[in-house]
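re: that chain from earlier
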Amino acid sequence: MGELVGRQVSDVKEATTGRNLGCTEALQLRQIRGNNAVFEAVTSHPTDPAAVFDCPRGNLYVLTMAEADRLTLESEGAQSAGAPSALTRRP
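^ sequence. v structure.
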C-alpha cells in the first residue's frame, strides 16, 4: 500500500490532426479488497512530450482479477480516456 506500482499510458489520437492527446500516469496502490485493487494516479503528464495541455491528477483505477493472468478495468472510479479495458500478462 502506498507504493508506486506502475504507470498507465493513454494514446488518444485527435481525429483531425493526429496529435496524441493521451496522458501518462504514475499509479500508486491505494487499496486491496478481495479480487479488486484500487490504484490512484499520483502524477500525470501528456504522453506526447511536445504537448502543452494539463492532464488530470487523482484518477482512480479499480482492477479485478478476472483470471490468473488477466485483470479487467472496472467502470467505477475516474479513468483517463484511452485507458485499456483489460491487462493480460505476457509470458
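The chain has no helices and six strands.
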